[in-house]
Amino acid sequence: MNPYAEPLAWALVNFVWQGAALALAAFLVIRWIRPSAGGRYATGVVTLALMLAAPVVTFAVLARTGGAPVVAVRTYGATREDFGKLCVAQRANALKYPHALFKKPLSMEEYLAARPIADPLHLFDCVMPCAGAEAFLVLSSEKAASLGIPYAKVLGTIERHNAFPSDPVQMRAGWALDKDELYRQAGAGPSDMSFVQTYDDYPVISLMQFEDLGFCGKGEGPGFVRRHSFTHDGTFPMNTSGGQLSVGQAGAAG
C-alpha cells in the first residue's frame, strides 16, 4: 500500500473540512450582522463550534501518523497508550502544582475510556477551554538577586513560524531546523537536559518535539515514551507543572 495514501487522504479531508468551516463561519457572521428573527444566538453558537472544531481535526491527522515521517507511518507504531502515558504523567505532575485546573488523578483506564473527539483523539488528548493571562519579568540576574526573586537564565532563544509550509501533513516543526543553533547558543545539548517543557496542546506534539529536539531519532518517539515516566520524580521529567493538558492553556508552555 502506498504509505502516502492515508496521511494525504486525511490532509485532504482536513483541508476541505477547515475550508468549509471557515466559509460557513463567514456566512454566519454576515447573518449575525443582519440576523433573521431569533437567529442571532444560534448563528453565534454554530460559528464558535466550527472554529473550535477545526484545529482538533488538524491534530487528529498528526496523531494518526504517530508523529513519524509520512513515508514510515505504518512502521513506528505510536499507540493511544503512548499518548495516554504522557497525559497521565502530566496529570500526576499537576497534582503537585496548586494553580492547576485539574485536581483529580487521571488513570490510564480513564484516559482510554474517554469519549472520542476526532479519531484517534479523545477527551484527555485535547487542551481544555480556559481563560487567563501570564507575564514574564525580564531583568538582570543581579537585580533579581537583590530583590530576592527566583529566576531562570535564558541561554538561547529562536522564534520561527510555519517552518515547513510545503509539507502535506505537519510531521515536523521549526525545532527540526533550529535545534543545532539553539543548542550552540546555550552551550548545551540534549544529554545536558534534566527536564523539558514541551508545547502540549495535544500529546502528539510533545512526541514530535522529543524527536525534533534530538532526545531520540525521528520515528523513535514511541519507544522513547515507553522507556520513561515523565513525572517530576521519575525519568525524563516533562511539563513538571502539568502542562497545558492539566494546568490550562493560559499558562506558559514550551
What structural class should be given to the helix and strand makeup? mainly alpha
Distinct helical segment count: 10
User: Tell me, what's the shape?
Assistant: globular
Spatial order of strands in the largest sheet: 1-2
Rg, please?
A: 20 Å
Helical content, roughly? 40-55%
Show unreliable segments: 65-74
Approximately what portion of the residues adopt beta-strand conformation? under 5%
The CA-CA distance between the termini, in Å, is 36 Å
Mean pLDDT over the residues: 79
Total beta-strand segments? 2
Elements, N to C (H/E): HHHHHEEHHHHH
Largest sheet: 2 strands, antiparallel
Could you characterize the architecture of this molecule?
This protein is an all-alpha fold. It contains ten helices and two strands, in the order H-H-H-H-H-E-E-H-H-H-H-H. It has helices at residues 5-33, 40-64, 73-76, 80-94, 108-113, 141-147, 175-186, 203-212, 221-227, 243-246, and strands spanning 116-118, 121-122. Strands 1-2 form a two-stranded antiparallel ribbon. The longest helix has 29 residues, at 5-33. The radius of gyration is 20 Å and the shape is globular. Residues 65-74 have low confidence and may be disordered.
